[in-house]
Specification:
Order of helices and strands: HEEEEHEHEHEHEE
Largest sheet: 4 strands, mixed
Number of domains: 2
Oligomer: single chain
Distance between the termini: 41 Å
Low-confidence stretches: 6-11
Radius of gyration: 23 Å
Length: 168
């Protein structure tokens, strides 16, 4: 009896793409306005200006910085503008986003750098259920990028996939 167990997944011609590979390599520095709020609710202009003038901005040199407020407070627009004035000269890049929004933007930017010709007529599995939460928009974007060239696109794990697209 020749009952060899075959691993049909490893023998298949599936290309697996793990979207966690598109996560940004460098973590940005965060500039959260919540520590500058009076009683966690309001921003006092005079104190805020004074505090900004005393910050050692060199820690942000050549770094990517995200400006946001983690408190659910109403922040006047000028407060973000002042932060931009101080950060612009010290940073590599500054963004007005939440950390999650920045991560999503970076993943999508990295997906858009894919060379689609590498996947012409390929059977592709977009890996799901990883250790890191990947934004839904990244799955949407990878599908958009690969759709014109792929033979088929599946979602999940190679051993258990959901068909998404098959070229006719």
């Amino acid at each position: 009896m020749n009952d060899l167990i075959k691993n049909r997944v490893s023998e298949s011609s599936l290309n697996t793409i793990d979207l966690s590979d598109f996560l940004p390599v460098e973590e940005p520095l965060l500039f959260d306005l919540s520590p500058y709020l009076f009683k966690g609710l309001i921003l006092k202009e005079k104190e805020y200006r004074q505090t900004l003038s005393e910050i050692n901005w060199s820690v942000y040199n050549n770094k990517t910085v995200i400006v946001f407020c983690s408190n659910d407070a109403i922040i006047p627009v000028w407060a973000y503008m002042l932060a931009a004035v101080y950060l612009e000269s010290a940073t590599k890049e500054i963004y007005f986003l939440t950390p999650d929004q920045w991560k999503e933007k970076e993943i999508i930017k990295n997906i858009q750098r894919i060379k689609p010709e590498k996947y012409i007529d390929a059977r592709i599995v977009i890996k799901g259920c990883g250790e890191v939460k990947i934004p839904d928009s990244a799955y949407f974007e990878i599908t958009k990028v690969l759709l014109p060239v792929a033979k088929s696109i599946l979602y999940g794990e190679p051993c258990s996939t959901v068909p998404v697209y098959k070229k006719k």
